[in-house]
Amino acid sequence: MTEDTARAHLQIGQVAERSELSIKTIRHYDEVGLVTPSARSAGGFRLYTEADVERLLVIRRMKPLGFTLAEMKELLEALDVLEDSTSSATLRRQAGATLDVLRGKAQDSCENLRRQLTYAEELTDLLTARLDAEASSTIR
Q1: H helix or E strand, kind and range, residue 61
Q2: pLDDT (tens digit per residue) in 7-63
Q3: Nearest to 99 by CA among 83, 122, 111
Q4: Dist CA 132 CA 98 (whole Å)
Q5: Cβ–Cβ under 8 Å, residues 49 and 56
Q6: CB–CB of 16/23 below 8 Å?
Q7: Interatomic CA distance for residues 101 and 122, integer angstroms
Q8: Long-range contacts from 59-63, C-beta under 8 angstroms, 24+ separation
Q9: What are phi and psi of 105, to 5 degrees?
Q10: pLDDT tens, 71-83?
Q11: Cβ distance 6 to 41 under 8 Å?
């Protein structure tokens, strides 16, 4: 590997910092085939490109929405097909359909999270009001 190539790649610690994922999680995603390092150093260390980081960011966005590893892989494969200008029209249609289904799941998950956030805010407001009332009664 040349010095220029090495500079174009990021080590796993740098990727962890940029993606806000743990090194252990990134290694796990490598083991299950979601994100494969683009290169290895002379010492065998994983090296990643900007495209690899972007792939990890897609996964990171999917995680809190309850997507399974299989769904993550399905989405990443669909995105790969759509980015490949040589993909057939049939593959592109299938990839688009996959994205549509998974977008629906993401939208449903967002609605659920919004509802949970509303409940959490209501509870916080209730507890704040209760604490304020208690503080007012002890001052008198």
Answers
A1: helix 50-62
A2: 689 999 999 999 999 999 999 999 999 999 999 988 888 999 999 999 999 999 999
A3: 83
A4: 50
A5: no
A6: yes
A7: 32
A8: 59/21, 59/29, 59/34, 59/35, 60/19, 60/20, 60/21, 62/106
A9: -65, -40
A10: 999 999 999 999 9
A11: yes
Arithmetic mean of pLDDT, 80-90: 96
Beta partners for 46?
Answer: 40
DSSP letter assigned to residue 34:
S
Whether 53 and 68 have beta carbons less than 8 Å apart is answered as: no
Pair 24, 61: CB distance under 8 Å: no
**Residue ranges of the alpha helices (H) in the chain?**
3-8, 12-19, 23-31, 50-62, 69-83, 89-139
Measured torsion, CA atoms of residues 54, 59, 63, 65, in degrees rounded to the nearest 10: 80
Distance of CA 1 to the CA centre of its chain: 30
> Exposed, middle or buried: residue 35 (CB in 10 Å: 0-12, 13-18, 19+)?
buried
The Cα 130–Cα 116 span in angstroms is 21
pTM equals 0.79
